[in-house]
Amino acid sequence: MGCGTSTIVPANEPSAQKTMKAALLIQMWYRRYLARLEARRRYTWNIFQSLEYADEQDQLRLYNFFNDMISQLHLSSENSDDNQQNSLLSLLRMPSRPDTEMKNGEDEDANLYKHTDPQTIVVPMTYKGPRLDYPLKLDHVQCLIDAFKGRQVLHAHYLLELLHETRRILKMNSIISHVHTRISQQVTVVGDLHGKLDDLLIIFYKNGLPEARNPYVFNGDFVDRGPNSVEVAVLLFACLLVNPLSVYINRGNHEDHVMNLRYGFIKEIMTKYKGHATKLIRLFGDVFSWLPMATVIDDKILVCHGGISNRTDLDYLKTIDRHKYISILRPPTSSRDGYDSDDSDYNDDITEWQQVLDLLWSDPRPTCGCSMNTFRGGGSYFGPDVTKSFLAKHGLELLIRSHECKPEGYEFDHDNQVLTVFSASNYYEVGSNRGAYVKLGANLKPRIVQYMATKQAGRKLTIKQRVSYVEASALRSLREKLYASKTILLEEFQKRDPDNTGKLLS
Amino acid sequence: MSEKNSEEGKENAENLTDEIGRKIADAFDVFDHDSNKTVDVREIPNIIRSLGCCPSEAEMQDIILEIDEDDSNGYIRYEKFRPIMTKILMERKYRPATEDRILKAFQVLDTDNKAYLTQDELKEYMTKEGDAFNQDEMDEMLSAAVDPEKGYILYKEYAALMTVEDT
Ligand SMILES: [Mn+2]
């Protein structure tokens, strides 16, 4: 306690009793106040989460609708040669593989390169930003970090080059990566970053850049929502190119063309790269389709973005051609590519698709069993029994997943067999949550590191300030949502209020 | 319809029970993350306190023992929680102290009658006496209680401020 007051010791027994009682009264009173704050914080948290998931749910519903439409058009176009309809069809199919007509991989590569050739874009003499050449070195990564801190944008020419190099490396890997910590004696797992450059820079600052002795697994959802998806992706890919054996990037449900259309990444590319957006969007989409979907650490820990279901089978997943899923939201259609598929082919496609969907979209739940993830509209809810039997079946000890924002940046579930790690701090609003990453040491025991990126240098917000701030923002979001549905709501209200009294009876 | 008046007294009592029931359900739902009418037992103190009750830590433990079931796995069922919480609220147990009593409590701690407490004094009492605060609770209290200009706690103003905020 340092200097100052030292005459706190009470003189006699009754006074000591009185002091104790007074302190207790204040403590009980203050704890009630804190509990009320906590309840308010949870209320707002629930509002944010409902808004977020309702949005994603819409996305899947909308997608299924379009998909049905595509199937219908496809069927009818087989019976007619209406050109207009065919062009509409090809337009709607856009998020799927652009090169379905390509017979083999080499042709596809050549075609993609033709449409996204970096050499067609000349870097002007006036360009002051970072320049890259290959093989990429650690110095380049540092130079990119400095440039991004100064709000510079990597030129489209260099970005395309970087993406082609990344694609080349990713193509050589398989759908499940394997990491061994025998030499490094450690590995770091990072969760959702969602275009939040500050958080990635904090992690690199605290934990060091990736290198042979400091390997990283990035567990998906590094783009969308935040303002710096391009920069975050560039840094992850650059790190991968410098250390292909020490950087592992899993695909998340947001490394997906259809999600990017809606959640900001495509908009960001179009704003930052006006003239070259089409090329970049196409190439990013292709690179994402080559990302692995899971990483296994020392044959003991599975790291994947969403989770598992009672049908998840790693051996089956290994047989999947991941590249065909430019968008994972797109379910297989029953009639494809000219031949009439019988039902068994179609069912195989569905089985395969669900394996992928479960890995990227699922959430753990405390209740046993496995059910459809109705809140998100995709993937599964999996219970502790599902986790237990999955881990036992594959000889694993722990599942590390991301995909859900947690107030503390991490959470243990299912008897410590599931660890959620989420690395975007202030995800819903300034002060809404901490970010965290996980360090696994030689014994693979997880150690959590938490942080909070904040612009207000030095000054720590009190819980009270944070709650009020986040609350205001949640109400704002809710108001926007209500406003967006104003016409529908008014119509519904009016139906129940035929006399135009302006009031509703409950 | 004519019997309505004679029924009124009974109805009021029912309304009160209804209202308490609704309050309990609402408070419970906020902490029921999976919407399956269960909460983590560690959330129970928050639920009870957010319903306006101020039991001591020992009393809190007694309540938890009463609602915790043997096979609960650390989760409390709403069905088990509701009747016990209803009873607590109906009997108006663990009522929070009034502003006046809080002020008196601060005055007891202010042995020199100087109308304020220094940060060290408050820390000493709150972390060593009664149901001691942990570091987070202490930091949070100090962050709002300390007068930014004077650097100590003007407890009369603080108690008044907290009472206003709480309503
Ligand atoms: Mn996700």
UniProtKB/TrEMBL annotation, chain A:
SUPFAM superfamilies: Metallo-dependent phosphatases
Catalysed conversion reaction: O-phospho-L-threonyl-[protein] + H2O = L-threonyl-[protein] + phosphate
Keywords: Hydrolase, Manganese, Metal-binding, Repeat
One MF term in the entry's GO annotations: metal ion binding
PROSITE patterns: IQ (PS50096), SER_THR_PHOSPHATASE (PS00125)
Enzyme nomenclature, EC number: 3.1.3.16
Keyword Metal-binding in annotation: yes
Cofactor requirement: Mn(2+)
Domain Serine/threonine specific protein phosphatases: 250-255
InterPro entries referenced in this protein's UniProt entry, alphabetically: Calcineurin-like_PHP, Metallo-depent_PP-like, PPP_dom, PPP_phosphatase, Ser/Thr-sp_prot-phosphatase
Family listed: Belongs to the PPP phosphatase family.
Name of this protein: Serine/threonine-protein phosphatase
Species this chain originates from: Paralvinella palmiformis
Source species taxonomy: Eukaryota, Metazoa, Spiralia, Lophotrochozoa, Annelida
TrEMBL record, chain B:
Keyword Cell inner membrane in record: no
Organism of this sequence: Paralvinella palmiformis
Pfam family, one: EF-hand_7
Domain EF-hand span(s) in chain numbering: 19-54, 97-132
Keyword Calcium: yes
Record Gene3D superfamilies: EF-hand
PANTHER family from the UniProt entry: DYNEIN REGULATORY COMPLEX PROTEIN 8
GO function term, MF aspect, one: calcium ion binding
Annotated GO CC locations: organelle
Protein name: EF-hand domain-containing protein
Keyword vocabulary terms for this entry: Calcium, Repeat
Domain of life: Eukaryota
InterPro entries associated with the record: EF-hand-dom_pair (IPR011992), EF_Hand_1_Ca_BS (IPR018247), EF_hand_dom (IPR002048)
SMART domains referenced in this protein's UniProt entry, alphabetically: EFh
